[in-house]
Amino acid sequence: MADHIKIRPASGTWVVRAAGAVLGESSNALELIEGDFPPVTYFPRSGIAMTFLEPSETSSHCPHKGEASYFTIVAKSGPIADAAWSYEAPKTEVAAIKDHIAFYTAKVTVEEV
């Protein structure tokens, strides 16, 4: 793993909410810390209501993690574009985040409950 990336189990139970709805909750979330960036909570897909997430055409590349795919949240109040991302085939060094989804905290609420 790149020296500046750390992945560990997130303590406690974590929830993600958007547009007044709970999209997911997990006590098996992961915390990814990369350099000086704030920690990012990665939720296992099994703890997310995937019916509210629609794959978007957006993608990005991280030299340390690989190719990220993005999701738009389908909410009653309207779509929340590219609010979540996932590394479908992450690099070996960060394989723990495979089958996990992270959310932009500027677009949704992610908190420990």
TrEMBL record:
Name of one Pfam family that matches: NTP_transf_9
Superkingdom as given in the UniProt entry: Bacteria
Gene3D superfamilies: Domain of unknown function (DUF427)
InterPro entries: DUF427 (IPR007361), DUF427_sf (IPR038694)
Sequence ranges assigned to domain DUF427 in this UniProt record: 15-105
Protein name, as recorded: DUF427 domain-containing protein
Organism of provenance: Yoonia phaeophyticola
